[in-house]
Design brief:
The chain has about 375 residues and is an alpha/beta fold. It has two domains: about 5-165 and about 350-360, 3-Layer(aba) Sandwich (Rossmann fold); about 170-345, Glycogen Phosphorylase B (Rossmann fold), CATH 3.40.50.2000. Helix content is about 45%, strand content about 15%. The protein has helices at about 15-30, 45-50, 70-95, 105-115, 130-135, 170, 180-185, 205-210, 215-220, 235-240, 255-260, 275-280, 295-305, 315-330, 330-345, 350-360; strands at about 5-10, 35-40, 55-60, 100, 120-125, 145, 160, 195, 225, 245-250, 265, 285, 310. The protein has a seven-stranded parallel beta sheet, sandwiched between helices. β9, α10 and β10 form a beta-alpha-beta unit. α1 packs across α16, α7 packs across α11 (about 255-260) and α8 crosses α14. The protein is globular.
């Protein structure tokens, strides 16, 4: 019997990589003989995380298009051509039965080439306002797995399947005790804990917004787990040097323990929303203004409209962030309402649903 072969392409951030790995794991759980190859962008996080998860990966020389005129933009057409040629070689040699795009720089060239080879394809759209790449790929895709309702204005309705966004297994099964979580981060049990995360690289607006109010927050006898990100760790440690209850980290490997410890979460509004819905803690979202089509604001509004989260924009942080954080931490009625409502949006079997759709595309 011929081995089933599947390519999963995309990445760039943890918000794309971890769902992609969850899909791969779900496929392997169905049939351990399935041969899965990842395709990502060179020098991006997936080149580290995917091999650690036990899967092979090939890298494309590709990056995003910047809004400002830069040398990177001048190289963009060259990178696209290079990535199409490399994708052509990968698809021709690997001969996938299905190609899956999870978003991120590498998904565009690979899925386009897969379409040229008439390989069935599936794209996963994590946002309530799709980016240009997925809107262009939708015409050639056989299935489009979405997280939010009402995307029929962007995609052919007959291709859309509501699956939710896959999350890491460790988040689906928060088995550790609160005492273990507190000990891991060296935190005290009798103080409120705020978890702040802007992603693996860091979020300028979140970090600067928090730093501007550290003195006031410290007066609340509050503990903070602050994932500042790769580009902001040293700066954040300098900002927090006078506040021993602020734990600054570059990256949180045990995000499950961070969620268990936290009383509330301050976060960007990308793919992490799927995790936040499952965890069910009160959330304040600060959507990134620097993403395509401002899709994080649309994601955040989708939760705010259901009274499932609070939202403060980056340019509002100076005036509104402190008040919103105090509400999130100390207004017990609001906390209970937000927690209940966000949990109602959780989809815990998203990876399995997408795996069903992927396997259903395989030509018999």
């Amino acid at each position: 019997m011929q081995t089933t072969k599947i390519i999963i392409s995309g990445g760039g951030t943890g918000g794309h990589i971890f769902p992609a790995i969850a899909i791969a794991n779900a496929l392997k759980k169905r049939d351990s003989s399935i041969d899965i190859l990842f395709v990502g962008a060179k020098d991006k996080l997936e080149m580290e995380k995917v091999p650690k998860a036990g899967y092979p990966i090939k890298g494309l020389w590709i990056s995003g298009f910047h809004r400002k005129l830069t040398l990177q933009n001048l190289l963009f057409p060259v990178k696209v051509l290079s990535s199409l040629i490399k994708s052509f070689s990968i698809v021709r040699s690997f001969k996938p039965d299905v190609a899956v795009g999870v978003g991120g720089y590498a998904s565009g060239p690979l899925l386009q080439v897969a379409n040229w080879f008439s390989v069935p394809s599936l794209i996963q759209e994590q946002n309530s306002y799709p980016g240009v790449t997925n809107r262009l790929l939708a015409k050639g895709a056989d299935k489009i797995c979405v997280v939010y309702d009402n995307l029929g204005q962007f995609f052919p309705k007959e291709k859309i399947v509501l699956t939710g966004n896959p999350v890491r297994a460790s988040i689906l099964n928060l088995n550790a005790s609160r005492q273990e979580a507190l000990a891991h981060f060296n935190l005290e049990e009798d103080k409120k804990i705020l978890l702040v995360t802007g992603g693996s690289l860091g979020a300028k607006g979140v970090n600067e917004g928090l730093a501007a109010h550290l003195k006031e927050l410290a007066s609340e006898d509050l503990q903070i787990i602050w994932q500042a990100g790769k580009f902001y760790t040293d700066w954040a440690k300098e900002q927090a040097k006078d506040y021993p209850n602020v734990k600054v980290l570059t990256f949180i490997d045990r995000m499950d323990l961070a969620y268990i410890a936290a009383d509330a979460v301050l976060s960007r509004a990308g793919g992490v929303i799927a995790e936040l819905c499952i965890v069910g803690k009160p959330v304040l979202l600060m959507p990134s203004p620097n993403v395509a089509e401002d899709h994080q604001t649309a994601n955040a509004k989708a939760l705010v409209n259901k009274n499932a989260a609070l939202m403060v924009r980056d340019n509002e942080a100076k005036d509104k962030l402190l008040t919103a954080l105090r509400q999130l931490l100390f207004d017990e009625n609001l906390r209970q309402t937000l927690s209940q409502n966000i949990q109602q949006l959780a989809i815990t079997d998203a990876a399995e649903r997408i795996a069903d759709e992927v396997l259903g595309l395989i030509k018999k």
